[in-house]
Amino acid sequence: MATPNDLRQMNRRRIVLATLRAGAASRSQLAQQTGLSQPTAGKIVDELIADRVLTDHGEPIADPAPPPRLGRPSHMLRLDGGRLRFLAIHLGVVHTRVAALAVAPRLSDVWSQITPTAGNFKDWLGNVRRMAAAALPRRPEAVLISVPGVVDESAGRSLLSSNLRWIEGVDLLAEVGRALNAPVHVVQECACLAMGQHIIDPASPNFLHVDFGTGVGGAAMIGGTVYRGPLPLASELGHTPVAGNVRKCGCGGTGCLETMVSRDALAMVVTGGRGYGSGGWQATVDRVTRHGVGSALGESLDAAGLVIAGAINMMGLNRVVLTGSVTELPGTVERIASAVRAGAMWERFGEIDVRAVPRHRLAGLAMVAIDRLIAPPVDDRADAAR
Predict the structure, then answer these.
(1) Please, which residues have CB within 8 angstroms of residue 154's CB and are 6 or more apart in sequence?
(2) Using CB atoms within 10 A of its CB, is residue 110 exposed (0-12), middle (13-18) or buried (19+)?
(3) Backbone phi, then psi, for 182, in 5-degree steps?
(4) Rounded to whole angstroms, how far apart are CA atoms 163 and 331?
(5) Under a CB-based contact definition with an 8 Å cutoff, are residues 305 and 338 in contact?
(6) Cβ–Cβ contacts within 10 Å for residue 283, how many?
(7) Which residues contact 342 (CB under 8 A, 6 or more apart)?
(8) With 0-12 CB in 10 A as exposed, 13-18 as middle and 19+ as buried, what is 344?
(9) pTM of the entire structure?
(10) Do 175 and 169 contact (CB within 8 A), yes or no?
C-alpha cells in the first residue's frame, strides 16, 4: 500500500520529469502537466527549490492559468544548471573522461578532463583521483560512472568486458567510493547513451540505440525507460554470431558481429587488412569518402543491419538510433538502414526509422542522478496501490 511518503515521492518525480521535458515551465503549467492540484504542485516546487533541484529565474511570464494566489506572479522554473553537484566518469576502453555535473542535463558532451585509459585498475584509479580534483575540487554528492561490457549495475561490477579485461570483477562502488569519498552509481554505457538520447528527444520514447565503437552494444528504450531483463545483459548485439564469420572475438567466441563492425574491424575491412596506418581513423574516413562503400565493407554493414533487424523484431520497435564510428563513414548509415528494413517485419506494415545521432553520454549520466538520487521512482507495489 502506498504511504504518504510514497505519494510525495511520486509527485516529486512527476514535477522533476515534467520540468525536464518542458525545459522551462511555470507552477501552473507544471500542475496542469502532472495532473496535480495547484497547492500540491506548489508545495513540491517549493521543496525542490529549497533542495536546489529547481531554480526560479524570477522572470514573469504570460500564463493563461495563473495560480490562485494574490500578488504572486508566475515565474519560469528550470532544473538547476548552476550548482555542480556530481562527478561524471566515462570509463572507456581507449579514454577515460571526467566532468562535473549539475542536476540539469547537458545537451552536448563536453568533458573537462580526458586521459588514455590505463592498463590496470590501480593506475586508472590514480588518474581518476587526479582528474576528479581538477574537475570538481570539493567532495561530490555522488560519482556516476558509465562502464562498458556486461555490467551488474546494482553490484557496481563489470562481469565481462571483452575489450577491457582488467575491469572485470572490480568493486567500483567500494574502490572508487573510497578514493573519492563519495557514493558511487554505475550504469552500463549503452543504457547511459539511450537515456541521454531520450532526454534530447523526449518525444520518441521507444527505440533501439546501437553504438559502434571499440565494441558494438545496444539498449532498448521502451516507454521512456531502458529495458532491463532479469539478467545483467543489455542488448549485447556485438556478440551475436554471424554465419560465415570465423574471426575470434575477445569474449571467447567465434564469429561475433563485433569482429566485423567495431572501429578496428571497420578500419581493417576498408584498408584491406592494413588497419589504421599512419593516418589513423581519419585515413579510413577519407578512403570511404573517395571510394564509397565497397563490397567487403558492405557485407559487414549488411550483417549489422540484419542483427539489428532481429532485435527490433523481437522488441516490437520501429525506430533505431545509431551512434559512433559507423556514423562517421559516408554511406554506411544508409547501407545499414537498408539491411534493417530488409529484415524488419514492421517494414511490411509501416515504416522503420533509422537515423544517426551524436552521443549524449553526459545527459544520460545526469538522468542517472535524477533516477537514483534526485527523484527516484517508487517501487512497483506503491505504484500499483496509487
Answers:
(1) none
(2) exposed
(3) -155, 155
(4) 27
(5) yes
(6) 17
(7) 305, 306, 309
(8) buried
(9) 0.91
(10) no
> Radius of gyration (Cα) for the chain, nearest Å?
23
| Nearest Cα to Cα of residue 241 among 232, 227, 252 | 252
State residue 58 phi and psi, 5-degree precision: 70, 20
Interior angle at CA 166, CA 150 and CA 138, nearest 5: 90
Largest CA distance in the chain: 74
- According to DSSP, residue 371 is labeled I
270-287: pLDDT as tens digits? 988 887 877 888 999 999
Cell of 28: 501552473
Please determine, for residue 383, whether its predicted confidence score (pLDDT) is greater than 50: no
Kindly give the pairing relationship between strand 86-91 and strand 75-79: unpaired
292 phi, psi to nearest 5 deg: 80, -175
**Closest CA relative to residue 72, chosen from 57, 54, 60:** 60
Q: Which residues neighbour 267 within 8 Å (Cβ) at sequence distance 6 or greater?
A: 275, 276, 281, 284
d(CA 371, CA 314): 27
Q: Which three cell numbers stand for residue 119?
A: 592498463
The 8-class DSSP code of residue 254 comes to B
The four Cα atoms 95, 86, 75, 64 give a dihedral, to 10 degrees, of 60
Cell of 316: 516490437
Cα distance between residue 91 and residue 187, in whole Å: 11
Instruction: Give the integer Cα–Cα distance in Å for 161 and 9.
Output: 36
Task: Give the DSSP per-residue string, 257-303.
Answer: THHHHSHHHHHHHHTTS--SGGGHHHHHHHHHHHH-S-HHHHHHHHH
Instruction: List all residues 6 or more positions away from 220 whose beta carbon is below 8 Å from its beta carbon.
Output: 194, 207, 208, 209, 226, 227, 235, 311, 315, 317
Residue 202: CB atoms within 10 A of its CB come to 14
Amino acid symbol at 34: T
- Name the phi and psi angles at 106, rounded to 5: -80, 140
Q: Tens digit of pLDDT for each residue in 142-193?
A: 999 999 999 999 999 999 998 999 999 999 999 999 999 999 999 999 999 9
> What average pLDDT does this structure show over 205-231?
94
